[in-house]
């Protein structure tokens, strides 16, 4: 099941040209969702960075980081993605036991206007993209510094935040399109422009 017909185009970073529309769109409509979208992500990173300074207990640090990452995964997947940009994804198992991935975007409203603000969209996508990149950097750091015990925690961060990133990119571009061919076409267009 793919609901890519009549979906709203949720902008990543492009801004509207109309200044009057921008002033209405720049307000944050869901401040609590915006706060928690970044709170769990940033808290997990801060705890990872400061953990060895604050305590010598690896287990306490690991449990705290994994709890924060799990809360982030749940909040982003079930709440903030829907409220802030109108996207959601999930896995559905049918009666035959087959698994189906569903990627949805909010349908265009009757007035034809967007219901998500540009500020919320920027907060959502910046948090969704930058935090997994930070965890990938932590993974290489833990690997090359031979901190094997921290590598498991960092891999958990990459997997949980990477899964949300992948799911929302599939919602944004549509699940019928092949992401590899899209990336190839984009890079080809950029090469031809130069």
UniProtKB/TrEMBL annotation:
<feature type="transmembrane region" description="Helical">
    <location>
        <begin position="31"/>
        <end position="50"/>
    </location>
</feature>
<keyword id="KW-0472">Membrane</keyword>
<comment type="similarity">
    <text>Belongs to the TVP23 family.</text>
</comment>
<protein>
    <recommendedName>
        <fullName>Golgi apparatus membrane protein TVP23 homolog</fullName>
    </recommendedName>
</protein>
<keyword id="KW-1133">Transmembrane helix</keyword>
<dbReference type="Pfam" id="PF05832">
    <property type="entry name" value="DUF846"/>
</dbReference>
<dbReference type="GO" id="GO:0016192">
    <property type="term" value="P:vesicle-mediated transport"/>
</dbReference>
<dbReference type="GO" id="GO:0009306">
    <property type="term" value="P:protein secretion"/>
</dbReference>
<dbReference type="InterPro" id="IPR008564">
    <property type="entry name" value="TVP23-like"/>
</dbReference>
<feature type="transmembrane region" description="Helical">
    <location>
        <begin position="150"/>
        <end position="169"/>
    </location>
</feature>
<keyword id="KW-0812">Transmembrane</keyword>
<feature type="transmembrane region" description="Helical">
    <location>
        <begin position="123"/>
        <end position="144"/>
    </location>
</feature>
<feature type="transmembrane region" description="Helical">
    <location>
        <begin position="56"/>
        <end position="76"/>
    </location>
</feature>
<dbReference type="GO" id="GO:0000139">
    <property type="term" value="C:Golgi membrane"/>
</dbReference>
